[in-house]
């Protein structure tokens, strides 16, 4: 008996499922005559008839019924092996989200350390508002994310790391720029750029509580999502902006940064979030390096 091949078994299983040569040929994207010849060749190779054919239709013989489960098992094993090989051949990657609520430079030391220790794992970065990052981690589109806190994180595991006090960006020529530190009371009469609640609902609500506690109700201006555009508006004297302290790294002519007396009350936390039931192989390394480079 000549050795069987998976192509012949695939054709046999297709006919066995349909019990109709024409339908099986259509599913296999071939014509019926070569399919019939292939089944006949398989029967000759096995020395046994696999199908009974008559005017009533097609039926499996005893030999066919014996072969079918074994053939299906062989094809299933082959499919599992091919899937594993494709997965192993695919480049490994760690998909990490970065909140846009703090300056990207805050994460540079961590990212440099990660890339130096991940080996063959490719680091893929996504910057977005924290709620969008949470949704991506929950859907499995990201392996982990560095979020601004507080955020609604649902069932995700969260490792708190640091706090970013709020500071003030104001036009360098403004009279208040002469003071070394400012308070919410000092800027209550100034137009203030502020983000929309939809971008970060939990943090927005936290800040609103602090504002109410201090009776802070200025004229709020809609903040541009791009912080370079926002700071250009500040430099042009259109308003002031409350920003996380890390944005001091964005140097722009005409913009001055000053500490805020209530900065700690308004501080944004930084935390690492991931799905505990689907931990990435590189997650322990990421957690360790995040603790080393971001924790205060």
Explain the layout of strands and helices.
Blueprint lengths: L5 H13 L2 H7 L4 H15 L4 E4 L2 E4 L1 H28 L3 E7 L8 H10 L4 E7 L1 H9 L5 E6 L7 E8 L1 E6 L20 E3 L6 H13 L6 E3 L4 H9 L4 E5 L10 E5 L8 E7 L8 H12 L2
Parallel strand pairs: 3-4, 3-5, 8-9, 8-10
Antiparallel strand pairs: 1-2, 5-12, 6-12, 7-10, 7-11
Helix pairs in contact: 1-2, 1-4, 5-9
Helix content: 25-40%
How do the helices and strands follow one another from N- to C-terminus?
Answer: HHHEEHEHEHEEEEHEHEEEH
Rg for CA atoms: 32 Å
DSSP summary: helix tally: 9
Largest pleated sheet? 5 strands, mixed
Amount of beta strand: 15-25%
**Low-confidence regions:** none
Global morphology = elongated
Number of strand segments: 12
What do the pLDDT scores average to? 90
Adjacency order of strands in the biggest sheet: 4-3-5-12-6
Class derived from helix and strand content: alpha/beta
Describe what this molecule looks like in 3D:
This protein is an alpha/beta fold and 296 residues long. Helices cover 39% and strands 22% of the residues. A five-stranded mixed β-sheet has the order 4-3-5-12-6, with helices on both faces. A five-stranded mixed β-sheet has the order 9-8-10-7-11. A two-stranded antiparallel sheet has the order 1-2. A hairpin with a 2-residue loop joins strand 1 (51-54) and strand 2 (57-60). Helix 1 crosses helix 2 (21-27), helix 1 packs across helix 4 (62-89) and helix 5 (108-117) packs antiparallel against helix 9 (283-294). The chain is elongated. The relative contact order is 0.14.
